[in-house]
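Good morning,

Attaching, inline, the backbone tokens for the sequence recovery test we're adding to the shared suite. The designed sequence is right after.
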């Protein structure tokens, strides 16, 4: 990618960020909903490390949930925002105008992914800041591993989102599919209900969901400063496969 290509991507990213922030769904699911859930979980479990040692260990509930909800923010941006945006562009003829202007498909998708990453960073900071301000949350054991895991997690969900945007027929269909994925992964990945207290059937379903590996990866970096190689590999494979399929299946009209 040359300098001109990079300038195109950055310019498109800046435009996308401004458009993203005009969407109520973006504000709700990226910034408000995760913080509200953290408040609910904090009021239920916060400060009860000893009482819930069999579930959360001695780290405390909020040290369990803080990294998990960083992954949730990355998921919400990827599977709710991106598919609706891309299908809206296609149905509204925006993509045809991009194509007529000789803007390559990778630049369009790249700007969407970069915009999603920026919003995920902001949403993750809000979640962690809220948890740290009101509940007993310690500093991550490895900030570097947490940042690396966050990038991998965000890339995986951005790729899944662009794939949904490439195959869904309309913004409404894309938003519906994204919301369904969001809530299934939210409750079966360990982000809301710890996997230790799930039934074997629910655990097996969770093992097929990418958010499960995002939660494990970020929790390992936050609690103990460890790198979960299996989770990182799974998320990288998800990002690569979904990204390649997005480029192959993407339709301009």
């Amino acid at each position: 990618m040359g300098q001109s290509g990079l300038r195109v991507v950055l310019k498109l990213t800046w435009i996308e960020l401004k458009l993203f922030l005009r969407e109520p769904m973006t504000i709700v699911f990226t910034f408000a909903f995760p913080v509200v859930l953290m408040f609910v979980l904090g009021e239920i479990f916060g400060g009860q490390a000893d009482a819930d040692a069999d579930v959360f260990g001695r780290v405390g509930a909020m040290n369990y949930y803080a990294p998990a909800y960083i992954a949730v923010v990355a998921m919400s941006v990827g599977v709710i925002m991106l598919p609706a945006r891309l299908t809206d562009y296609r149905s509204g003829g925006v993509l045809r105008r991009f194509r007529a202007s000789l803007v390559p498909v990778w630049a369009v998708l790249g700007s969407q992914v970069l915009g999603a990453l920026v919003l995920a960073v902001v949403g993750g900071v809000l979640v962690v800041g809220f948890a740290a301000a009101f509940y007993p949350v310690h500093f991550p054991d490895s900030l570097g591993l947490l940042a690396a895991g966050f990038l991998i997690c965000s890339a995986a969900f951005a790729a899944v989102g662009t794939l949904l945007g490439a195959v869904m027929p309309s913004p409404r269909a894309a938003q519906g599919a994204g919301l369904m994925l969001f809530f299934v992964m939210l409750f079966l990945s360990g982000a809301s209900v710890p996997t230790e207290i799930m039934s074997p059937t629910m655990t097996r379903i969770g093992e097929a969901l990418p958010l499960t590996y995002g939660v494990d990866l970020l929790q390992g970096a936050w609690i103990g400063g460890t790198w979960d190689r299996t989770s990182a590999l799974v998320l990288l494979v998800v990002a690569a496969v979904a990204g390649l399929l997005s480029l192959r299946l993407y339709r301009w009209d």
